# Entry
Amino acid sequence: MRIIISYQMIALVGLILLIPQPGTAAKRMDVPAETLTSIASSGNDRTKKIPDKNTEKIEEKSLIKQNMLTYRPPLRGAPAGRIAGGTRGLNTQFPYLCSLVPEHVGLTTSKQPSLYYFLSDATTFPLEFTIIEKQAVYPLVETRIQLPRTAGIHVINLADYNKNLKIDTQYRWFIAVVQDDEHRCKDILAAGAVEWVAASAALKTRLEDTSNTEKAAIYAETGIWYDSLASISNAIDKHPGELDLHQQRASLLEQIGLPEVAQYEYQQIEKR
# Structure
């Protein structure tokens, strides 16, 4: 019985010796307790301080990304086969010519839409514009475009020719750089497709009392390509010095697979 009690006493004493006394850790490290407290508090202060270097630039870039247009192709958009011609790149003998359209049939809510194309370099060759109803024999419009034409993004307004599209009907349109009237096989050709669709009541309500940039965003997210591009381009025409507008148009063009045109737009931004 005495042996059992002795073992219990030894165990109890051992536990007491294992319990750390106040200030023991500090003494073993030869560091005052006040110093440890100061280090801990300073560490907490560091976590609270956030470096603000370049914060404004980061916020500005984030804001631009948030304002970028997002094009959502329509479910009804059938493949149309965008055509681009000429030599890719700048400073070549012949310009790179491209219609600013998606690979599918682009939609518009206007019977007289604006059609955009791109020239990588200025040209003195005649430019010819044609638009024809799908499977029709004769074109709706076939005409030479007034020269000169400089490098950049250009527009053809169907209203200038006093011609209307038919509702829910597909059209193909073409831009050609005519190098030789006697040998039209040498033409540099770009093409796209367009279809006029009726705007829904909900879309009309959303468009009421909105700016061009707001219209561009609404049209883009509802899959109305031509009206979105026209809206952001109209905003650029009114405010050519607004770099954010050029960035939005460049982003829109990148989304449909036109990196050359988007790159040209970015280069113009850098020159301003």
Summary: Residues 75-271 form a domain with the Immunoglobulin-like fold (CATH 2.60.40.10).
